[in-house]
Amino acid sequence: MHLNQLERQLPSLKSLSAGLDRLVQGHLWVKVLIGLGLGVITGVLLGPDLALVSQDTAMVVANWLALPGKLFLALVQMIVVPLVFASIVRGLTASSDINLLKQMGLRSGLFFLAMTVLASLIGLSLAGLINPGHYVDREAMQHLVEQEAVTADVAAFALPSLGEVPTRLMGLLPANPLQSMVNGEMLQVILFAVIVGIALISMDTDKSGPIFSLVVAVQELCMKVVSWAMKLAPYAVFGLVARLTAMVGLDILTGMLVYMVTVVLGLLLLALIYLLIVRLLSGMTARVFLQETRELLLLAFSTSSSAAVMPLSLQTAESRLKVPEQVTKFVIPLGATVNMTGTALYQGVAVVFLSQVFAVDLDVMSLVLVVFMSVAAAVGSPATPGAGIVILAMILESVGIPSVGVALLLGVDRILDMVRTVVNVMGDLCACLLLRNVRLKVPAVKAVPVE
After folding, report:
1. What is the mean pLDDT of residues 360-377?
2. Domain of 162: which CATH number?
């Protein structure tokens, strides 16, 4: 008995995502949007625009309001590593054919890489065309930077010399997998999960069965924690948005409007490209695709985490888009971690925006470096809310822009994080359709003539 036969006797991902289904049916996304609106109103009442209360009192109240949001982020960040690890191992064991796995990995990896590079280029081009940094009050922005300093360890993303490349490549293989999990080094975690999954396929089922059952149990545990976190989503959005609005005020938010519009336009363009690919691959119109995936996309918008909605992504791809199970279980967990096209586009816009605010000229080599680092950072970043802002600080330092400039973006990052997560999830579904419609060439077994 193979592992894929054993899996049929264990709880399916469809049953594990029942809790998320109930939340969707309860119109969770509507509650999140209401929380978003109430958060803005509350933040305005507490903020410096109306000055109804003192700044110290406003910050105390805002910090308490943000407590559910911080708890939500902590739960998602806590569970994302074991969830991704268990999902990738289970996805690999869904098919016992190594050649099939190689082809799926190569095709999906090239697709994610190409779309991430394209997204970064779209962000840089659109920002260079609109020039959002010319529409803000630079003095107000500089004042905010002085109040809110953001630091980051940029050494990890410094470009290696030619002689250091072999050492860096070997560093991708985790010498201590548990340490990589603790540090949130997602690329190392993925490689470890791939090795474990392939090893399980190669073992006898009698020996690998207990380990596989443990992996399924870990995944079920993660699903339970995710369902708890989702119940906090409306309160999390309300508290986080209220705190940010109270901190920066409406003047700063309206001053950032052109920057926000630039990012959203870029994300909409990227979404249109995905819809075009879906039409070419499956013949499915944009209207039908959005109708079949609307609950998933709305939940992705609500949670700002492609990892948190991974169970619903699997269910949507299998039930609504009719993608084979062996494809979805491999592509969706992989895409939730390495497919960050929305994040790459956002980082491209942010770099150009901050270069204009700080009057830093970016030459062609700097722009190439931004594209390279956006792609490299997106592959290894955790699929959790707020990860992109830390990665952005690393990229800024590499092109001579002060990393404290990310403080200018904190007030609107939560809203943009919601939108770019939707695009990331669309990319995962698009990759599933790509593999569903491409005939995988599995070597045929040569027949032996019977005498």
Report:
1. 79
2. 1.10.3860.10
Q: SS3 string of 50-116?
A: CCCCCHHHHHHHHHHHCHHHHHHHHHHHHHHHHHHHHHHHHHHHCCCCHHHHHHHHHHHHHHHHHHH
How many angstroms separate the Cα of 415 from the Cα of each of 71, 109, 242, 421? 18, 28, 12, 10
Q: What is the pLDDT of residue 237?
A: 78
User: Would 451 be classed as within a structural domain?
Assistant: no
Pairwise pLDDT comparison (145 vs 427), residue with the higher score = 427
What's the confidence (pLDDT) of residue 381? 57
Give the per-residue pLDDT at 22. Answer: 58
Window from 65-79, 112-126, 138-152, 235-249 with minimum mean pLDDT: 138-152
Residue 448 placed within a domain: no
Residue 257: partners with Cβ closer than 8 Å, 6 or more residues away: 135
Identify the pLDDT of residue 95.
61
Domain tally, the chain? 1
Q: 425 and 316 in contact (C-beta within 8 Å)? A: no
pLDDT on residue 33: 75
The rounded radius of gyration (Å) of the Cα atoms in the chain is 23
> Is residue 82 exposed (0-12), middle (13-18) or buried (19+ Cβ within 10 Å)?
middle
In a domain, 446, yes or no: no
Nearest to 394 by CA among 425, 350, 431: 350
Tokens of 301: 């918008």
The helices-and-strands tally (H runs, E runs) of the chain is 21, 0
**Mean pLDDT value of segment 317-328:** 85
H or E segment at 257?
A: helix 257-282
∠ Cα 42 47 51 (to 5°): 115
The whole domain housing 148 covers 3-437
Residue type (1 letter), 36: L
Q: Would you give the DSSP letter of residue 406?
A: G
Please indicate, yes or no, if residue 380 is contained in any of the structural domains. Answer: yes
Are the C-beta atoms of residues 48 and 340 closer than 8 Å to each other?
no
Please give the residue that has the higher pLDDT: either 164 or 429: 429
Distance CA 343, CA 328 (A): 22
What is the C-alpha separation between 150 and 120, in angstroms, rounded?
23
* Letter string b/e over residues 196-218, b meaning 16 or more CB atoms within 10 A of that residue's CB: bbeebbeeeeeebbebbeebbeb
